Amino acid sequence: MTSFFQSSSSSSSTMDIVKDSDNLSDNEPWIEKYRPKLLGDIVGNEDAVSRLSAIAQTGNLPNIILAGPPGIGKTTSILCLARQMLDSSYSNAVMELNASDARGIDVVRNKIKMFAQKKVTLPPGKHKIIILDEADSMTAAAQQALRRTMEIYSSTTRFALACNNSTKIIEPIQSRCAVLRYTKLKDEEVLSRLQQVCALENVTYDTSGLEAIIFTAEGDMRNALNSLQSTVSGFGIVNADNVYKVCDTPHPSEIKRAIQFTAEGKTYDAQKIIMHLHGLGYAATDIIQTLFRVTRSCDLPEPQKLEFIREIGFTHMRIAEGLNTQLQLMGCIARMAAMKHQSMPR
């Protein structure tokens, strides 16, 4: 991560975040305060954003599905697109619903259908836009009703559906929509935005602090900005120790020591570290996930690293099935350490 840290620091100062400082409260969450207003300000997923920019220029918006992990800019992209296409008509011609709250068939029959029937004066070639966030949470009946509504009002209203998993959207709706795939943001992209926000907010930080935020965020910009603001609010200075206290994640340096002991076959020393972390209150899920992420980046021989990841994966599966106990963690460490002894010549 340190390899791109210096290179991105210069470019981050030139990136433009649209920010209306006169109307913003100092107490507003930074994820809203620094939410991009234009497509050009969105970080990452250049291919998907460029397709939306082309749609904004032509003005002919098809029904679209934006699919990808949380916190990577799906909803923001749709809002930016609607704002650029409709301009002054945005407030009257856009309806946003979170389908995880309002996900039943009554919402489609009442709210969505009534908005689709509503008369709004728009420039030629423009359409009303209905944004359905978390669309994969809608019930099957609601999606069936939505399919018919999309057909009937296609001349005046277009739909934009944001979801984490597009396979939970029924096939008839998928066939009526253009699908845009979003991926997790790269570390450099998250870093550039964090550095810019730090400059705008006069945040005192060091390299290790931003690296810790990027490590815990895993490509989720919303998570990264929340962690940054929480650390600033709680400690004032952003460094690695403060970030891990706020994010409540097992410290990677401790996990790395455990992996090194395990690679050397020192089962007791490695288990002692894992038991200490478990005693601090970290769940087995938190420990095993951090164990995987640190192992993936550790400097180990490739065959040994693959075997470690295999064991961690099986343990994670058992923990996810409900066996969330110390025994699973201890067994994982023991099996990983046993590989060292099995590989030794007899």
In short:
Among the domains are: 45-181, Rossmann fold (3-Layer(aba) Sandwich), CATH 3.40.50.300; 252-343, Zinc Finger, Delta Prime, domain 3, CATH 1.20.272.
**CATH superfamily name of one domain?**
P-loop containing nucleotide triphosphate hydrolases
- As laid out across the biggest beta sheet, the strand order is 2-3-4-1-5
- The whole-angstrom Rg is 24 Å
Number of strands: 7
Shape: elongated
Main sheet, how many strands, which sense, barrel?
A: 5 strands, parallel
Q: What is the CATH architecture assignment of one domain?
A: 3-Layer(aba) Sandwich
What would the CATH topology of one domain be? Rossmann fold
The CATH class assignment of one domain is: Alpha Beta
Query: How many DSSP H or I helices?
Result: 17
**Beta-strand content:** 5-15%
State the low-pLDDT regions, or none: 6-16, 18-24
Distance between the termini: 41 Å
Q: Could you report the average pLDDT, rounded to the nearest whole number?
A: 83
The run of helices and strands is: HHHEHHEHEHEHEHEHHEHHHHHH
Task: Estimate percent helicity.
Answer: 55-70%
The quaternary state of the protein chains shown equals single chain
Class by alpha and beta content: alpha/beta
